[in-house]
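Reviewer has doubts. Consider these tokens.
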Amino acid sequence: MPDLARRSLLVASLALPTAALAQAPGPVRLRGTIAAYDAGRLTVALREGGEARVTLPEALAVSALRRVALSELTAGTFLGVVAEPAPDGGLQAIAISVFPPGVRTREFQSAWDLGPNTSMNNGAVEAVMESADGAAVTMTILGRSHRVAITPRTALLMGIPATRADLVPGAAVLVVGTRAADGTITVERMQVGRDGVSPAT
């Protein structure tokens, strides 16, 4: 993440039911649709049920997404791939976040919470392959090569700037941050659905 983006991380307050507030500190991903937005406060109807109210600091940037064509992926392109196990023992991409040219973040693989057995895989493209059987990319992650199958249902997306005007009721939203021991959330990024493209990770 660029230094400017790091400096823009701000603290947001999150009102959740008591049981939710009892969760251990750590990463937080709120997925759902906007129920309301007024005076800097966003009410999210959560995918799992219930609502969360997040206060958005004035300086917090909001992003949307655009679709990316497979032809835009070239050697060296950095990707964040949400995947599930493929039948051949490799990975099958559910959603691929494509970083702009020259932008990278740390390489890693870890469990993810999009669904059972999902994982997040960050690394750079080695090669892109297309055949009658479908498409795939090979990625380098921490010095190892991994094959990732791409299906017609895989979402290939890149972040683009958005504004507070895009925070309208019914829009899909993803809020990512970290919960402190006191329940406070440090917001790292926020994506909102726009132009028919919704956050998928």
